[in-house]
Amino acid sequence: MSRTDAERARPERTRDDRVLRITRIVALLLLPFLIIAVILLFGFPDRTGELFAWPITPPLTAYLLASAYVGGIWVFARIVRARRWHRVVVAFPPVIVFTAALLIATLLHLDRFSQNLSFYTWFVLYITTPFVTAWLMWLQRGRDDGEPEIPDSRVPMVVRVLLILVGVASLLTGVVLFVIPTFVIPFWAWDVTPLTARVLGAVLSLPGVVSLWFLRDARWSSFRIVFQAQLVSLIAIGCSLFAGRDALHWDRPATPGFLALLGIAFVGYLALYVAMELRLRRAAASPGP
Protein backbone atom coordinates (compact mmCIF):
# COMPACT_ATOMS: atom_id res chain seq x y z
CA MET A 1 0.00 0.00 0.00
CA SER A 2 1.43 3.39 -0.96
CA ARG A 3 1.84 6.21 1.54
CA THR A 4 -1.06 8.07 -0.06
CA ASP A 5 -3.27 4.98 0.10
CA ALA A 6 -2.31 4.42 3.71
CA GLU A 7 -3.20 7.99 4.57
CA ARG A 8 -6.60 7.64 2.86
CA ALA A 9 -7.23 4.41 4.75
CA ARG A 10 -6.94 6.09 8.15
CA PRO A 11 -10.18 6.61 10.04
CA GLU A 12 -11.85 9.88 9.04
CA ARG A 13 -11.94 11.09 12.65
CA THR A 14 -8.13 11.41 12.64
CA ARG A 15 -8.27 13.88 9.75
CA ASP A 16 -10.60 16.44 11.32
CA ASP A 17 -7.81 19.04 11.76
CA ARG A 18 -8.81 19.38 15.41
CA VAL A 19 -6.58 20.62 18.22
CA LEU A 20 -6.91 18.08 21.04
CA ARG A 21 -7.92 19.22 24.50
CA ILE A 22 -4.67 17.93 26.03
CA THR A 23 -2.72 20.10 23.58
CA ARG A 24 -4.67 23.16 24.71
CA ILE A 25 -4.18 22.29 28.38
CA VAL A 26 -0.40 21.93 28.04
CA ALA A 27 -0.19 25.23 26.16
CA LEU A 28 -2.24 26.92 28.88
CA LEU A 29 -0.04 25.46 31.62
CA LEU A 30 3.14 26.72 29.93
CA LEU A 31 1.92 30.29 29.47
CA PRO A 32 2.39 31.50 33.09
CA PHE A 33 6.02 30.32 33.14
CA LEU A 34 6.76 32.19 29.91
CA ILE A 35 5.10 35.34 31.20
CA ILE A 36 7.02 35.23 34.48
CA ALA A 37 10.31 34.62 32.64
CA VAL A 38 9.69 37.64 30.38
CA ILE A 39 8.95 39.85 33.39
CA LEU A 40 12.08 38.72 35.21
CA LEU A 41 14.42 38.97 32.23
CA PHE A 42 13.16 42.29 30.89
CA GLY A 43 12.36 43.86 34.25
CA PHE A 44 15.28 42.70 36.39
CA PRO A 45 18.21 41.85 34.08
CA ASP A 46 20.75 42.82 36.75
CA ARG A 47 19.26 40.40 39.28
CA THR A 48 19.07 37.23 37.18
CA GLY A 49 21.41 35.35 39.50
CA GLU A 50 18.98 35.95 42.34
CA LEU A 51 15.60 35.89 40.59
CA PHE A 52 16.26 33.76 37.49
CA ALA A 53 17.92 30.39 36.94
CA TRP A 54 21.48 31.75 36.62
CA PRO A 55 23.33 35.10 36.51
CA ILE A 56 23.25 36.45 32.96
CA THR A 57 25.66 39.15 31.85
CA PRO A 58 25.48 41.43 30.02
CA PRO A 59 21.72 42.17 30.22
CA LEU A 60 21.52 42.02 26.41
CA THR A 61 21.61 38.22 26.55
CA ALA A 62 18.74 38.21 29.05
CA TYR A 63 16.78 40.50 26.73
CA LEU A 64 17.34 38.20 23.77
CA LEU A 65 16.12 35.15 25.69
CA ALA A 66 13.09 37.11 26.86
CA SER A 67 12.37 38.09 23.25
CA ALA A 68 12.18 34.41 22.31
CA TYR A 69 9.76 33.85 25.18
CA VAL A 70 7.60 36.75 23.92
CA GLY A 71 7.14 34.87 20.66
CA GLY A 72 6.38 31.73 22.66
CA ILE A 73 3.66 33.54 24.59
CA TRP A 74 2.01 34.55 21.33
CA VAL A 75 2.13 31.01 19.95
CA PHE A 76 0.90 29.20 23.06
CA ALA A 77 -1.88 31.74 23.60
CA ARG A 78 -3.07 31.04 20.07
CA ILE A 79 -2.80 27.26 20.56
CA VAL A 80 -5.14 27.53 23.55
CA ARG A 81 -7.82 29.03 21.29
CA ALA A 82 -6.94 27.37 17.96
CA ARG A 83 -9.64 25.34 16.25
CA ARG A 84 -7.54 23.85 13.46
CA TRP A 85 -4.36 21.84 14.02
CA HIS A 86 -2.61 22.79 10.79
CA ARG A 87 -2.57 26.45 11.90
CA VAL A 88 -0.25 25.69 14.82
CA VAL A 89 1.59 22.47 13.98
CA VAL A 90 4.53 24.39 12.46
CA ALA A 91 5.31 25.80 15.93
CA PHE A 92 5.95 22.38 17.47
CA PRO A 93 9.22 21.28 15.77
CA PRO A 94 11.05 24.54 16.68
CA VAL A 95 9.79 24.30 20.25
CA ILE A 96 11.06 20.73 20.46
CA VAL A 97 14.50 21.71 19.13
CA PHE A 98 14.70 24.86 21.28
CA THR A 99 13.74 23.16 24.54
CA ALA A 100 15.93 20.11 23.85
CA ALA A 101 18.90 22.40 23.17
CA LEU A 102 18.32 24.28 26.43
CA LEU A 103 18.08 20.98 28.31
CA ILE A 104 21.45 19.89 26.89
CA ALA A 105 22.98 23.29 27.66
CA THR A 106 21.70 23.03 31.22
CA LEU A 107 23.19 19.57 31.74
CA LEU A 108 26.52 20.72 30.30
CA HIS A 109 26.74 23.75 32.58
CA LEU A 110 25.01 22.74 35.81
CA ASP A 111 27.74 24.45 37.82
CA ARG A 112 26.72 27.84 36.39
CA PHE A 113 23.16 27.71 37.70
CA SER A 114 21.83 29.21 40.92
CA GLN A 115 20.44 26.86 43.51
CA ASN A 116 17.09 28.59 43.84
CA LEU A 117 13.42 28.06 43.01
CA SER A 118 13.83 29.55 39.53
CA PHE A 119 16.52 27.03 38.64
CA TYR A 120 14.51 24.06 39.88
CA THR A 121 11.51 25.32 37.92
CA TRP A 122 13.72 25.82 34.85
CA PHE A 123 15.17 22.32 35.20
CA VAL A 124 11.77 20.62 35.56
CA LEU A 125 10.37 22.52 32.60
CA TYR A 126 13.26 21.75 30.27
CA ILE A 127 13.62 18.13 31.28
CA THR A 128 9.95 17.57 30.43
CA THR A 129 8.87 20.06 27.73
CA PRO A 130 10.84 18.58 24.78
CA PHE A 131 9.32 15.16 25.39
CA VAL A 132 5.80 16.42 26.18
CA THR A 133 5.79 18.60 23.05
CA ALA A 134 6.98 15.70 20.90
CA TRP A 135 4.31 13.47 22.47
CA LEU A 136 1.60 16.03 21.68
CA MET A 137 2.77 16.24 18.08
CA TRP A 138 2.62 12.44 17.88
CA LEU A 139 -0.91 12.42 19.35
CA GLN A 140 -2.00 14.99 16.77
CA ARG A 141 -0.42 13.14 13.84
CA GLY A 142 -2.60 12.59 10.79
CA ARG A 143 -5.25 15.14 11.77
CA ASP A 144 -4.19 17.64 9.12
CA ASP A 145 -5.82 16.64 5.83
CA GLY A 146 -3.43 18.88 3.86
CA GLU A 147 -6.28 20.83 2.27
CA PRO A 148 -6.19 24.64 2.07
CA GLU A 149 -8.68 26.68 4.04
CA ILE A 150 -11.42 28.67 2.34
CA PRO A 151 -10.08 31.22 1.66
CA ASP A 152 -6.37 30.42 1.68
CA SER A 153 -3.29 31.10 -0.41
CA ARG A 154 -0.04 29.35 -1.23
CA VAL A 155 3.27 30.99 -0.44
CA PRO A 156 5.10 31.35 -3.80
CA MET A 157 7.99 28.98 -4.40
CA VAL A 158 10.60 31.74 -4.85
CA VAL A 159 9.56 33.28 -1.53
CA ARG A 160 9.76 29.93 0.21
CA VAL A 161 13.25 29.34 -1.14
CA LEU A 162 14.44 32.78 0.03
CA LEU A 163 13.00 32.31 3.50
CA ILE A 164 14.50 28.83 3.73
CA LEU A 165 17.92 30.34 2.91
CA VAL A 166 17.52 33.00 5.61
CA GLY A 167 16.31 30.37 8.06
CA VAL A 168 19.19 28.02 7.28
CA ALA A 169 21.64 30.88 7.88
CA SER A 170 20.05 31.47 11.28
CA LEU A 171 20.03 27.75 12.06
CA LEU A 172 23.68 27.28 11.07
CA THR A 173 24.69 30.27 13.20
CA GLY A 174 22.81 28.72 16.09
CA VAL A 175 24.48 25.35 15.56
CA VAL A 176 27.95 26.91 15.56
CA LEU A 177 27.16 28.85 18.75
CA PHE A 178 25.87 25.70 20.40
CA VAL A 179 28.47 23.17 19.26
CA ILE A 180 31.69 25.21 19.41
CA PRO A 181 30.93 28.20 21.67
CA THR A 182 34.56 28.72 22.67
CA PHE A 183 35.46 29.28 19.02
CA VAL A 184 32.70 31.87 18.54
CA ILE A 185 33.14 33.79 21.81
CA PRO A 186 36.07 36.00 20.65
CA PHE A 187 34.14 37.05 17.54
CA TRP A 188 30.60 37.36 18.84
CA ALA A 189 28.77 40.70 18.83
CA TRP A 190 28.84 40.99 22.62
CA ASP A 191 30.43 39.16 25.54
CA VAL A 192 29.06 35.67 26.07
CA THR A 193 30.04 32.60 28.06
CA PRO A 194 29.85 29.02 26.77
CA LEU A 195 26.46 28.70 28.48
CA THR A 196 24.97 31.92 27.12
CA ALA A 197 26.42 31.19 23.67
CA ARG A 198 24.56 27.88 23.67
CA VAL A 199 21.38 29.60 24.87
CA LEU A 200 21.66 32.09 22.00
CA GLY A 201 22.25 29.18 19.63
CA ALA A 202 18.98 27.65 20.81
CA VAL A 203 17.19 30.98 20.24
CA LEU A 204 18.56 31.27 16.69
CA SER A 205 17.39 27.73 15.92
CA LEU A 206 13.74 28.79 16.21
CA PRO A 207 13.31 30.67 12.90
CA GLY A 208 15.59 28.18 11.17
CA VAL A 209 13.44 25.19 12.05
CA VAL A 210 10.27 27.12 11.16
CA SER A 211 11.64 27.88 7.69
CA LEU A 212 12.31 24.19 7.02
CA TRP A 213 8.57 23.50 7.30
CA PHE A 214 8.19 25.22 3.92
CA LEU A 215 9.69 22.03 2.46
CA ARG A 216 6.45 20.21 3.25
CA ASP A 217 3.74 22.86 3.38
CA ALA A 218 3.02 26.02 1.38
CA ARG A 219 -0.39 27.02 2.80
CA TRP A 220 -0.34 30.51 4.28
CA SER A 221 -2.88 29.41 6.89
CA SER A 222 -0.23 27.02 8.24
CA PHE A 223 2.31 29.82 8.81
CA ARG A 224 0.17 32.83 9.70
CA ILE A 225 0.29 32.43 13.47
CA VAL A 226 3.95 31.50 13.70
CA PHE A 227 4.95 34.45 11.49
CA GLN A 228 2.98 36.76 13.75
CA ALA A 229 4.97 35.33 16.66
CA GLN A 230 8.28 35.76 14.84
CA LEU A 231 7.50 39.38 14.00
CA VAL A 232 6.57 40.09 17.62
CA SER A 233 9.78 38.39 18.74
CA LEU A 234 11.90 40.32 16.21
CA ILE A 235 10.40 43.62 17.40
CA ALA A 236 11.31 42.63 20.96
CA ILE A 237 14.83 41.74 19.80
CA GLY A 238 15.16 45.15 18.11
CA CYS A 239 14.11 46.87 21.32
CA SER A 240 16.54 44.65 23.24
CA LEU A 241 19.46 45.59 20.98
CA PHE A 242 18.64 49.26 21.45
CA ALA A 243 18.35 48.92 25.23
CA GLY A 244 21.54 46.87 25.47
CA ARG A 245 23.49 48.63 22.71
CA ASP A 246 26.35 49.54 25.05
CA ALA A 247 27.29 45.84 25.18
CA LEU A 248 27.81 45.56 21.42
CA HIS A 249 31.41 45.30 20.15
CA TRP A 250 31.39 47.14 16.83
CA ASP A 251 34.96 46.08 16.09
CA ARG A 252 33.97 42.41 15.92
CA PRO A 253 32.91 40.90 12.57
CA ALA A 254 29.87 39.16 14.02
CA THR A 255 28.20 42.43 15.03
CA PRO A 256 27.25 43.76 11.56
CA GLY A 257 26.54 40.22 10.36
CA PHE A 258 24.16 39.50 13.23
CA LEU A 259 22.38 42.83 12.86
CA ALA A 260 22.11 42.35 9.08
CA LEU A 261 20.62 38.88 9.54
CA LEU A 262 18.02 40.25 11.93
CA GLY A 263 17.21 43.16 9.64
CA ILE A 264 16.81 40.93 6.59
CA ALA A 265 14.64 38.53 8.57
CA PHE A 266 12.37 41.28 9.86
CA VAL A 267 11.95 42.97 6.46
CA GLY A 268 11.42 39.63 4.75
CA TYR A 269 8.90 38.34 7.30
CA LEU A 270 6.99 41.63 7.38
CA ALA A 271 6.85 41.88 3.57
CA LEU A 272 5.68 38.27 3.33
CA TYR A 273 3.04 38.76 6.02
CA VAL A 274 1.59 41.90 4.43
CA ALA A 275 1.66 40.43 0.91
CA MET A 276 0.01 37.17 1.97
CA GLU A 277 -2.66 38.96 4.01
CA LEU A 278 -3.51 41.07 0.97
CA ARG A 279 -3.74 37.94 -1.18
CA LEU A 280 -5.96 36.34 1.45
CA ARG A 281 -8.31 39.34 1.43
CA ARG A 282 -8.50 39.30 -2.35
CA ALA A 283 -9.28 35.57 -2.25
CA ALA A 284 -12.02 36.17 0.33
CA ALA A 285 -13.51 39.00 -1.73
CA SER A 286 -13.50 37.18 -5.05
CA PRO A 287 -16.73 35.41 -6.02
CA GLY A 288 -16.75 31.65 -5.78
CA PRO A 289 -17.03 29.34 -8.80
TrEMBL record:
<protein>
    <submittedName>
        <fullName>Uncharacterized protein</fullName>
    </submittedName>
</protein>
<keyword id="KW-1133">Transmembrane helix</keyword>
<feature type="transmembrane region" description="Helical">
    <location>
        <begin position="227"/>
        <end position="245"/>
    </location>
</feature>
<keyword id="KW-0812">Transmembrane</keyword>
<feature type="transmembrane region" description="Helical">
    <location>
        <begin position="120"/>
        <end position="140"/>
    </location>
</feature>
<feature type="transmembrane region" description="Helical">
    <location>
        <begin position="257"/>
        <end position="276"/>
    </location>
</feature>
<keyword id="KW-0472">Membrane</keyword>
<feature type="transmembrane region" description="Helical">
    <location>
        <begin position="161"/>
        <end position="189"/>
    </location>
</feature>
<feature type="transmembrane region" description="Helical">
    <location>
        <begin position="56"/>
        <end position="76"/>
    </location>
</feature>
<feature type="transmembrane region" description="Helical">
    <location>
        <begin position="88"/>
        <end position="108"/>
    </location>
</feature>
<feature type="transmembrane region" description="Helical">
    <location>
        <begin position="195"/>
        <end position="215"/>
    </location>
</feature>
<feature type="transmembrane region" description="Helical">
    <location>
        <begin position="21"/>
        <end position="44"/>
    </location>
</feature>
